[in-house]
Amino acid sequence: MVSNNAKEVFIQGITQDGKPFRPSDWAERLAGVMSPFRPGGATPGSHLSYSPWCIPTTMAGVKCVIVNHELRDHNVMAWDFVMNFARDNGLQVAEACLLPDPPPKK
């Protein structure tokens, strides 16, 4: 269950039984499908970059997609699509807030 307190949901490329999810580019594919859902809506060429609300990444060697709750506010059907993808494929989901990198030391 996803609460309203966290700013992001991390969909992890690990199934509920601990196995890596395949295909290996699943995160990029999912984020690519979600590229039109962005602040201001889709614009010409927006399919060439990921939405800031649905970003693929790797954390601790595990492929993930970070989904911002603003996606739900913008388009609940897009949010449901992403959450149902995770549920239907038995992927682990964690709520969190992505912290910015610390400033470089001088």
Q: Tell me, what is the CATH class? A: Alpha Beta
Tell me the number of structural domains: 1
CATH architecture: 2-Layer Sandwich
Q: What is the tally of helical segments?
A: 3
Reading side by side through the largest sheet, how are the strands ordered?
Answer: 2-3-1-4
User: If you average the pLDDT, what whole number results?
Assistant: 87
* Euclidean distance between termini CA atoms: 42 Å
Protein name: DUF3579 domain-containing protein
Organism: Daphnia magna
Characterise this structure:
By secondary structure, the protein is of the alpha+beta class. It has one domain (8-96): Alpha-Beta Plaits. The protein is built from 3 helices and 4 strands, in the order βαββααβ. A hairpin with a 2-residue loop joins strand 2 (54-59) and strand 3 (62-68). The longest helix is centred in the last third of the chain and has 13 residues, at 76-88. It starts with 7 loop residues before the first strand and ends in a 10-residue tail after the last strand. The mean pLDDT is 87.
